[in-house]
Design goal:
heterodimer; A: 276 residues; alpha/beta; seven-stranded mixed beta sheet; 9 helices; 24% helix; globular; B: 418 residues; alpha+beta; 3 domains; four-stranded antiparallel beta sheet; 16 helices
């Protein structure tokens, strides 16, 4: 029988970690072991999360497929649904369907240096790929991670950022727009970090995620540095309602973000009428 | 029974009566308000079939209802479960027009490709489609331009042609055959004379429909980006953002999914029609909206209906039924759009948009001096110029309306002729 494409499956919250004042990372596991075993994904894919009486929302997976302790989603408190899930604790259940979307082009990233540029919660989908890359270290070249947050309090995945920095051939730099007295790191937009980083554009793939405004500045600078359009990869946020290329909400040019994306190269994005 | 049959008109009611006993029968009915709509018929003898006019709403509602429950969900303790509510219907849609049937074939592809939508497909796989070819174009029809009529060569279960006292019946897909085999006593084999007569009607109809708009030219202009931003701006100004065009369109399938709480412990997940011209269609959590401006949404709509649909499905998602023309009072419908795009190409330069006061002065309705005084007053009162002029007794509401129409370039006539 053809499965029902809109059917959410129950998952329970195994753990909640408070990243910032308004961002929490949830570790989830399917109630049904068979579904859990069947569920495979690529970094960059997303799921549709159902929250009781609140509907569904598309959320990127922020853990690596190689992470065995469950699926992780980092969720920023924005509205009704995200506000409700922020009240959830261990043992509470949500619905989940997916994974959807294309994910990052792992095959094309193999053998290259990787530059990650993230802004705010935009580090979430990148984290999935970073963890994946670090778990298959020999397949990839050097890794540079540039991350920008509004204030030191808004930095997500603090433990991860510190841990990644200790790995061999991995450079992590974090910057904030507004510092506080205890902050000792960089201050300013994430694009300023690009000027200081040592990157060879000819052998590097850049993977960016953040607010559309940030992405456009970063892309502009990368092009100036000599990056090829197809070597600039980003993941777009759209109103992905159905996740299966039917409902029309996430259309972008002749494509659907939920089917052909959310990961696109700049070469593709350039042709879209609405840009980022 | 052969593939071409004759159904005498006096047998139509009997045939429909038989169908209605076994399946849900849906046909165009003229209601007490004078509107013709596709409706479920419980008793064939109690309704007035209307096979002459185009139903105001397309038949898509029978496959993709305006609202439908996809799941019932409940929460007990921490347990949160979804129970699917799949449709189970067995229907005959009688009296479809070719354009509407063609639209259903378009929807079939959308809901079957990649991920299969069981809600749509369950309804669709158990619905028999019977269309009537059109031998007279209805108001604002342009199926010939959209290549979806007036007669079809495939896709129908049965196709009828009105030969005056009888219908010429073509048997298409297997379910059409089942229907005529089951009640074969209503039908006789078509003779060569019937065939000739039908062929003549088809030829005559084709000539009557003609080519009212050049859909292909408009599409190629869109593909080649030969449409200037001013045109989208203008359409955006005229669009009232009501979504009517999408609701009456037989191929518009965009939908939304929302939860409707029923109690503290249960609720329904509902799917409902949505429209890409509505402001919130693409809005994200946090408020960012990639298509904030109305002009962008209009642009999206027409790009989707013409070049994008053709790129993906090798056919436009406009079937030329003309319903959007009837519902849109801002003239942001397909016919006006195609004409605008085609005509704009002809004009080398574009006239500058005139301001309201200037239009009234040029029309000799007010003097330049009167305009100056009114503008000064308006600066104090903060009232719109039009209101100020009316209050001063210098012009009338009707004149302002005409001037605004001129400013927004709303054509005065609604017809497709010419």
């Amino acid at each position: 029988m053809v499965p029902n494409i809109y059917q959410p499956y129950p998952v329970s919250v195994h753990g909640v970690k408070e990243e910032t004042g308004d961002i929490k990372t949830f570790t989830l596991g399917f109630k049904d072991q068979e579904i859990q075993n069947r569920f495979t994904f690529r970094p960059g894919q997303f799921v549709l999360v159902s929250v009781f009486n609140c509907g569904e929302a598309p959320i990127s997976i922020c853990s690596s497929p190689t992470f065995s302790k469950g699926l992780q989603l980092s969720i920023k408190k924005m509205g009704l649904l995200t506000g409700e899930i922020h009240r959830y604790t261990e043992g509470d259940e949500v619905g989940l369907r997916g994974p959807y979307g294309n994910g990052f082009p792992l095959e094309q990233l193999c053998g290259h240096d990787l530059l990650f540029v993230g802004g705010g919660i935009g580090l979430a989908p990148l984290r999935s790929l970073i963890q994946y890359v670090l778990s298959k270290r020999s397949q990839f070249g050097g890794v540079t991670i540039l991350y920008g947050a509004r204030t030191p309090q808004d930095i997500v995945f603090k433990d991860d950022l510190a841990a990644w920095d200790k790995e061999e051939d991995v450079q992590v730099t974090t910057t904030v727009y507004r510092d506080n007295p205890t902050w000792k790191g960089e201050v300013g937009p994430v694009t300023r970090l690009l000027e200081k980083a040592t990157i060879s554009p000819s052998n590097t793939k850049a993977i960016i995620c953040g607010h559309p405004a940030i992405i456009s500045y970063v892309v502009f600078d990368l092009l100036k540095m000599g990056f090829a359009e197809e070597d600039i990869i980003t993941t777009l946020e759209r109103n992905m309602k159905c996740g299966v290329g039917k409902c029309g909400h996430c259309s972008i040019g002749s494509k659907f973000t939920c089917m052909h994306g959310p990961v696109f190269t700049y070469r593709e994005i350039k042709t879209f009428p609405t840009g980022f | 029974m052969p593939n071409e049959l004759i159904l005498n008109k006096e047998h139509l009611t009997g045939f429909l009566r038989k169908i209605a006993k076994e399946r849900e029968l849906i046909a165009p009915i003229k209601n007490s308000y004078g509107d013709t709509l596709f409706e479920v018929i419980s008793s064939v003898d109690d309704v007035s079939l209307d096979l002459e006019s185009r139903p105001a709403m397309p038949p898509k509602d029978f496959f993709l209802p305006p609202t439908e429950t996809l799941f019932n969900y409940q929460r007990e303790g921490k347990q949160y479960r979804f129970e699917e509510v799949l449709p189970d219907v067995s229907r005959v849609l009688f009296g479809l027009r070719s354009c509407d049937l063609w639209a259903i074939l378009f929807l079939d592809v959308v809901f079957q490709e990649n991920f299969k939508d069981r809600y749509y497909l369950n309804r669709r796989s158990n619905t028999i489609l019977i269309n009537i070819g059109c031998h007279e174009p209805m108001l604002n029809c342009f199926c010939k331009s959209a290549k979806s009529g007036p007669f079809l060569t495939q896709g129908y279960d049965l196709q009828l042609t009105d030969l005056g006292d009888r219908f010429f019946v073509e048997v298409g897909r297997p379910r059409g055959r089942e229907l005529v085999d089951k009640w074969d006593y209503f039908f006789t084999s078509a003779t060569q004379k019937d065939r000739d007569e039908q062929y003549e009607i088809v030829l005559e109809a084709e000539s009557k429909f003609g080519q009212t708009v050049d859909l292909d030219m408009a599409t190629s202009r869109l593909i080649n980006h030969e449409v200037d931003d001013a045109l989208w701006e203008e359409l955006g100004n005229r669009c009232q953002g009501c979504g009517g065009c999408a609701y009456v369109c037989p191929t518009c399938y965009c939908f939304n999914i929302v939860d409707r709480p029923v109690s503290e412990t249960q609720g329904e997940r509902v799917r409902m029609h949505d429209a890409c011209t509505l402001a919130g269609f693409t809005r994200l959590a946090g408020g960012y909206n990639p298509r904030q401006e109305r002009s962008r949404r209009i642009r999206r709509r027409f790009y989707h209906k013409l070049p994008f649909a053709i790129e993906k499905y090798h056919r436009p998602s406009c079937v030329g039924c003309g319903r959007c023309m009837e519902i849109c009072f801002g003239r942001v419908d397909m016919i006006h759009f195609i004409k605008m795009v085609c005509e704009r190409g002809k004009k080398a330069s574009q006239e500058a948009s005139l301001r309201l006061g200037e239009i009234l002065v040029q029309a000799g309705l007010i003097s330049r001096e009167e305009l100056k005084v009114a503008l000064e007053k308006q600066a104090d009162t903060g009232k719109p110029l039009g209101i100020q002029l009316i209050e001063d007794g210098l012009t009338t509401t009707k004149e302002i309306a005409l001037a605004l129409g001129c400013q927004l370039r709303i054509p005065e006539t609604a017809g497709t002729e010419g």
